[in-house]
């Protein structure tokens, strides 16, 4: 049976994804069931600036007012999702774009309405819907939005969504594709790290901003089935000769 891999494409790198990235995906698609979760933070930011809507981040999460939520929905589900599906199709990859609101894919609730507004956390993933698409040979491409029982929608960090989907589906692999070649310390890629190291790097200010939700999502997704999460660059080939290049995150050193 084909293994399942969840790949999160960061907004930081979406417009710069190299042909080698899509070629890596083509190779993966022959051997694995692929689910893509995309971000779009920089594009949301640009549109908010154009519309003069103020925006601010708390530990890498965008504080989301009603106005910000409207723009996030427009950019994530309307623009970025459809553009990415279009490119994947050009490479012959059978992509289907959905947001977490479709088919109750991501049931969400506010993390802390007072501090973050309409920023959601994932309460449930509609695995049956994703499995149906995968069974029919499609690559689901998910925009990071969700809704609660009342139909209220939420802006969810895309790293959080990728981690939650990987966990819910019992995926064998989780990849964060971003604009840096992994976690950097003093300008050098940390090739292997652990949950404890990550906590130390956050406390020491080595890991900041958008890297915080990424490593937190990675740590939360680690399980018996998912022993390793990778952070890789979308600007360079990250998969050659069967090997992934970037930062490998495990629970403990040597634990598989
Ligand atoms: N220790 C670190 N190593 C690498 N990147 C880091 C680190 N700490 C903070 N960052 C920042 O995290 C960014 C990646 O997160 P983000 O901008 O949210 O990307 P994405 O859109 O791919 O999720 C990097 O471009 C970098 O500016
Ligand atoms: C709550 C929250 O922060 N939502 C993110 C959703 C997009 C995202 O996560 O995009 P990246 O992967 O490019 O960072 C935002 O509004 O920017």
Are any ligands bound, and if so which? Answer: adenosine-5'-diphosphate, N-acetyl-L-glutamyl 5-phosphate
| Number of alpha- plus pi-helical segments | 8
Give the strand order of the largest sheet, numbering strands 1, 2, ... along the chain: 5-8-2-1-11-15-18-14
Strands, total number: 18
From the helix content, strand content and strand pairing, which structural class follows? alpha/beta
Largest sheet: 8 strands, mixed
Helix content: 25-40%
The CATH topology label is Carbamate kinase
- Tally of separate domains: 1
Oligomer: single chain
Which parts are unreliable, with pLDDT below 50 for 5 consecutive residues or more?
Answer: none
Describe the structure.
The chain is of the alpha/beta class. The protein has one domain (3-250): Acetylglutamate kinase-like (Carbamate kinase, 3-Layer(aba) Sandwich). It is 36% helix and 28% strand. The chain contains eight helices and 18 strands. The chain has helices at 19-31, 41-50, 66-90, 113-116, 127-135, 158-168, 195-203, 211-221; strands spanning 3-9, 32-38, 57-58, 61-62, 95-99, 106-110, 120-125, 139-143, 145-147, 153-155, 173-178, 184-185, 188-189, 192-194, 229-233, 239-240, 243-244, 247-250. An eight-stranded mixed sheet has the order 5-8-2-1-11-15-18-14, with helices on both faces. A two-stranded antiparallel ribbon has the order 3-4. Strands 6-7 form a two-stranded antiparallel sheet. A hairpin with a 2-residue loop joins strand 16 (239-240) and strand 17 (243-244). Helix 2 packs across helix 3 and helix 6 (158-168) packs parallel to helix 8. The radius of gyration is 17 Å and the shape is globular. Residues 10-13, 39, 41, 159, 178-180, 183-184, 206-211, 214 line the site of adenosine-5'-diphosphate. Its EC number is 2.7.2.8. Its main location: cytoplasm.
């Amino acid at each position: 049976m084909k293994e399942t891999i969840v790949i999160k494409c960061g907004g930081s790198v979406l417009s710069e994804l190299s042909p080698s990235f899509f070629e890596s995906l083509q190779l993966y698609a022959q051997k694995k069931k692929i689910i893509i979760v995309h971000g779009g933070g920089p594009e949301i930011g640009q549109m908010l600036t154009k519309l003069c809507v103020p925006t601010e981040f708390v530990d890498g999460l965008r504080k989301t007012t009603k106005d910000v939520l409207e723009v996030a929905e427009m950019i994530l589900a309307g623009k970025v999702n459809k553009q990415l599906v279009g490119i994947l199709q050009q490479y012959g990859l059978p992509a289907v774009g959905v947001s977490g609101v479709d088919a109750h894919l991501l049931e969400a609730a506010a993390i802390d309405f007072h501090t973050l507004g309409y920023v959601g956390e994932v309460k449930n993933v509609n695995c049956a819907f994703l499995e149906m698409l995968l069974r029919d040979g499609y690559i689901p491409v998910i925009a990071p939005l969700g809704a609660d029982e009342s139909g209220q929608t939420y802006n969810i960090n895309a790293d959080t969504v990728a981690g939650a989907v990987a966990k819910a589906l019992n995926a064998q692999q989780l990849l964060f594709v971003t604009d840096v070649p992994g976690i950097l310390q003093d300008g050098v890629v940390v090739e292997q790290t652990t949950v404890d190291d990550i906590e130390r790097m956050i406390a020491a200010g080595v890991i900041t901003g958008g890297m915080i939700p990424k490593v937190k999502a990675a740590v939360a997704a680690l399980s018996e089935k998912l022993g390793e999460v990778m952070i890789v660059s979308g600007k360079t080939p990250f998969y050659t000769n069967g090997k992934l290049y970037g930062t490998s995150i495990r629970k403990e050193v040597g634990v598989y």
